[in-house]
Amino acid sequence: MIEIATSAATTTLVIAGDLDLAERDQFPEIAARVVGLRRQLLVIDMCGVTFMDSTGAAFLISLADASRKRGGATVLRGADPRDLFVLEICGALELFRIDADHRCAGDEAQAEPVDQDASSPA
């Protein structure tokens, strides 16, 4: 599932599930909608992506390339290292800015430190 949200300067794609060959039929319509919005910044939220193959990577690359040609930028947030690896193998990682500070909703519980000695005197 891919949802599109917009603000004055940003288009955000929120992707959930697989981004692969089985989903390719929806890619042209989504790409046309995103390009038609003509925002300077495209943010692709990949927190919900469970799998991405080269077809999904080609879709993201086409979006980033279209944005770059309009003078815009594309940011990936919540991308898994394996997804970044696929983009790197495709030779396209430099088309994207990587939001390394973003934490996906499920990552917050893992990021908080556990205080095992809370009842011990200091």
Keywords:
122 residues; alpha/beta; Transcription Regulator spoIIAA; 5-stranded mixed β-sheet; 4 helices; 29% strand; globular
Number of domains: 1
Query: Order of strands side by side in the largest beta sheet?
Result: 1-2-3-4-5
**How much is the radius of gyration in Å?**
17 Å
Secondary-structure element order, N to C: EEHEHEHEH
InterPro entries: STAS_dom (IPR002645), STAS_dom_sf (IPR036513)
Pfam family, one: STAS
Protein name: STAS domain-containing protein
Domain STAS: 1-91
Structural features, described:
- This protein is of the alpha/beta class and 122 residues long.
- It has a single domain, classed as 2-Layer Sandwich (Transcription Regulator spoIIAA), CATH 3.30.750.
- Helices cover 34% and strands 29% of the residues.
- It contains four helices and five strands; from the N terminus they run E-E-H-E-H-E-H-E-H.
- The chain has a five-stranded mixed sheet.
- Strand 1 and strand 2 (10-19) form a beta hairpin.
- Helix 1 (27-37) packs parallel to helix 2.
- The model is unreliable at 109-122 (pLDDT under 50).
- This is STAS domain-containing protein.
- Residues 1-91 form the STAS domain.
- It comes from Cellulomonas pakistanensis.
